[in-house]
Each structure stands twice: as structure tokens, then as C-alpha cells.
Specification:
The chain has 160 residues and is α+β, with helices and mostly antiparallel strands. The chain has one domain: Aminopeptidase. The protein contains five helices and seven strands; from the N terminus they run βαααβββαβαββ. It starts with 6 loop residues before the first strand and ends with a strand. The model has no long low-confidence stretch (mean pLDDT 95).
């Protein structure tokens, strides 16, 4: 695994074309599991991101490797708990970028506790969260659009 240093910056509307292209990847959708019902529906994608971009309570960052936009990382409040989630284009998996980007984001995002979740079979994302200090707090069943079924997801919490 090459260790590279990403940078973060606030998401701007011009980033959305890359995010849309990344979410069309069927392998990435299968891995993420909890995705849009129809990843190819551009109007639904645009409406979803318009809500994100206009919500000041959501912390949203684009992840860059040098000048290349490789993904995004967000923190939002769900059911009273602040959560973090991220997405990297598949071409950038396995390079340590998600771990490095999450570390940068956590240094910026001082709110604790933070929560996260991952499909229980997404071992790479689970490892990224645990390396960042997130602790498993349990599991729950939830409907995963990308898989068309209820699956188990692992829940995490970061207190430090």
C-alpha cells in the first residue's frame, strides 16, 4: 500500500460531476451498500446534493490527491447523533487515502462523540474506521438499496 497525503477542501458544485461518475461504479455501490435506489438517476442525485450543499449543519469536504478529486467526506446529524461517512472512487482504493483523509477530517472535526456505520462485510471500511479510533458499538439490520435486501451493518463510535 502506497501512503499518499490527500488534502481536503469544502465541496463546491463543480465537484458533483466527479461524485456522480464515482457512484455509477457497480462494484463501489455493492461495497458501500447504502446508496441511492438508482445511482444513474441524475436529477435525484442533483436534488440530494443540493440538500447537502445548502445545509449548514453538514460538514462537507472534497478529498484531493494532488490536483485530482478522488472522493468526499461528510459529517451530518442523524437521529440526534453526528455521523461521518466517506466515498472514494474505486481507482483510489487500497492506497491509504481513505485513512489519511479521515484522519485529516477528524483533526478538523472536533465534535465528539462521532458515529459511523459500514456494511458488516465491508472489511476495508471497518479497518479504516478502527484505525482512526472508532470502536464497534453493535450491529443492526438495515435495507441496502445497492443490494436490494436488508443486510447487517456495524455501528461505531469515536469519543476521543
Amino acid at each position: 500500500m502506497r501512503s499518499q497525503t490527500p488534502t481536503l477542501r469544502p465541496i463546491v458544485p463543480a465537484d458533483l460531476a466527479v461524485f456522480f461518475a464515482q457512484q455509477l461504479d457497480p462494484v463501489a455501490n455493492q461495497m458501500a451498500a447504502f446508496t441511492a435506489a438508482d445511482p444513474s438517476d441524475r436529477p435525484a442525485f442533483d436534488a440530494h446534493w443540493q440538500r447537502i450543499l445548502s445545509d449548514a449543519t453538514i460538514v462537507k469536504r472534497s478529498i484531493f490527491l494532488e490536483e485530482v478529486l478522488v472522493g468526499h467526506i461528510l459529517s451530518y446529524v442523524e437521529s440526534g447523533a453526528r455521523e461521518v461517512c466517506y466515498w472514494l472512487g474505486r481507482a483510489y482504493w487500497g492506497q491509504g487515502l481513505a485513512s489519511a483523509a479521515l484522519a485529516l477530517f477528524l483533526a478538523e472535526m472536533k465534535v465528539r462523540p462521532l458515529h459511523a456505520r459500514a456494511a458488516s462485510d465491508n472489511l476495508a471500511s471497518i479497518a479504516i474506521l478502527e484505525r482512526a479510533g472508532f470502536v464497534r458499538t453493535g450491529t443492526e439490520q438495515a435495507y441496502a438499496s445497492a443490494r436490494g435486501a436488508e443486510i447487517e451493518e456495524t455501528l461505531f463510535r469515536l469519543d476521543r
